[in-house]
Amino acid sequence: MSRPIRIVLAWQLIVTSVLALLSGWLGSWPEAVSAALGGAVGISAGVGFALVVRRSRDRSAGGTLVTALQAEAVKIGLSITLLWVVLTTYKEVVAPVCVGSFILSILIFSMAFFVRDHGNR
Length: 121
Description:
By secondary structure, the chain is mainly α. It has helices spanning 3-26, 29-55, 61-89, 95-109. The protein has one domain (3-114). The protein contains 4 helices and no strands. Helix 1 (3-26) packs antiparallel against helix 4. The mean pLDDT is 91.
């Protein structure tokens, strides 16, 4: 995986951990688990995106665009599916905490664009 992807995945993990700890400390156990699960959905979607990009060997402009669209489709599909699984199976889910953690995780992933890849100068 590229350096920008590794960095944002690490930041997602750090922020998700902090949110889970804060939710548990300020709220309850179900809030902590909800924050962790919401962040985990965002992290999983990011990993799916990275795996699709990594698999691509096409370096043309058109191929890069197709890969980006495929990776985004995988990220969206995983996000929707995993959020649905969490919200329907974890009976004590605190939905605002879960969804808030997920949204923050996805926003952090979008910051990969701003991380420099020192290997490609």
